[in-house]
Each structure stands twice: as structure tokens, then as C-alpha cells.
Amino acid sequence: MKPIHLTLLLAIVLAVTGCGGTTASRTTSGAAAGAATGAAIGSLSADAGKGAAIGAAAGALGGYIYDQNEKEKERQRRYRYREQ
């Protein structure tokens, strides 16, 4: 895969990863983005399947962590709003 294709793929993946408002949708979009990225990187070493599996796991974990962070920020915003 050419470096420009990999760069474009990563840019698209990063743009799509932030989509979603629920834990399930953020985790799923993270897994999909990770799988696509892992497959692209894995194809460079002739093992796209293994790269996709590792990428999906890492992406799902990243999506879940991102979701929990967003929920905590929302809780803090609500708490500050009530104090005013």
C-alpha cells in the first residue's frame, strides 16, 4: 500500500471514529476503524487478517475509553451547572 493511501485511510478512520453518542456506537466505530487500519498496516507485512483482528481489539478499547471520558465530561458539566 502506498504511503499516500495509508495516510488518507488513517485520516478517514480518525474522522469517523468520533461519531456516535452511545457506548455501543462509539465502541463499534472504534472497532471498525481499528480493523480497517490494522488490515491496511497488516497488509504491508502480508498478514492483513491478523492486523485487522489486533486493530479491531485496540479500536474497540479506544472507543470505549473515549466514550467513558465523554460521559465523565458531561457529568462534570452538569454538576457545575447545578452549582450555579
Automatic annotation (TrEMBL):
Q: Which InterPro entries match?
A: Gly-zipper
Q: Does the keyword Signal apply?
A: yes
Q: Which residues form the signal peptide?
A: 1-24
**Superkingdom, taxonomy of origin:** Bacteria
Q: Which part of the chain is the Glycine zipper domain?
A: 30-73
Among PROSITE patterns, the record links this protein to:
PROKAR_LIPOPROTEIN
Pfam families linked to this entry: Gly-zipper_Omp
Q: What is this protein called?
A: Glycine zipper domain-containing protein
Q: Which organism is it from?
A: Halochromatium glycolicum
